[in-house]
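for the record, two folds in this file. i put them one after another cuz i was lazy. first one right below, seq on top, structure tokens after. the second one comes after a little note so u can tell where it starts
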Amino acid sequence: MDNYGTKNTPIFGTQIEAFQGHHELPWTITYRQVCNNIYKICQATFPVAVAGIIVIDDPYVLLWMSTAISFINLSQELHKWTHQGRDQTAWWINTLQDYNVIVTRKGHLAHHKPPFENNYCIVSGHCNSLVDRIGLFRGLEKAVFTLTGNVARCENNERLLEDRVVELGIKRKSATLSRHDNTKN
């Protein structure tokens, strides 16, 4: 969603547009109420939860599934907290971030720096260093390129909505660095 497609992409177009909008205006997530922030995720996990309750009779599997679904549903809220200041979140949220139980502000905000190619994990951030070090997403991007010829946005610096937000006067044009550009603008 961060690196491929447009608002016209079948099935995922609205999510892709939302992801790109978030990269251009990341602070806007902080204005969403909880229900507005997580309802789409809840809609997607609801059928899985119902099917699990009907089909699975192992209490340990149900416990694992309900915990996983709960964190999936809350992932956008955890993500939102990384974009809020310490004074905008409850003390217990700050404590969880301070002890790296949930994704930290510093850890996630690295994802919002050009060329937007790392720190994708938004629940705890625990997997970011490993995933980035082994090049998981870079390898997947190579596979997508090999199969489709599509280049990842973090590789070509395409910013789908940047011109629109500049045109509206919401922010200034950025000088996005290429993944391979070691100079600073």
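(here's the note) second protein begins now
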Amino acid sequence: MSKENVRLFFAALAKDDVLQNKFGEMNARLAERFKGTPPDEEEFEKLFRDELLPSIREAGFSFSAQEWKEFTEESKEVTAFSEEELDAVAAGTECIGIGASNLQDIHCPCVSSGSGVR
């Protein structure tokens, strides 16, 4: 498991309508549940384990909640995007932001991986 797997997951998410729909629906439920307030550490661990991880594994990926959070934090530091990432963002793919430091965070991993918009 690694943060690279998290990046690969978001890259796949950017290209797969079925995954986008699945995680988009999940994000909508979570946004409603947390009402814009990010979950605390304990809530996030449970949320990741019980709700996100089964779907992540079903999509063929495996990584920990810690790797997800580290990737999210590092994504805030990204200052340059590849041409492919810019194309994905320009295409208007909607960011789902699950697990971002804020459910509406403009620095979510979707944006950094090129699968979302700010």
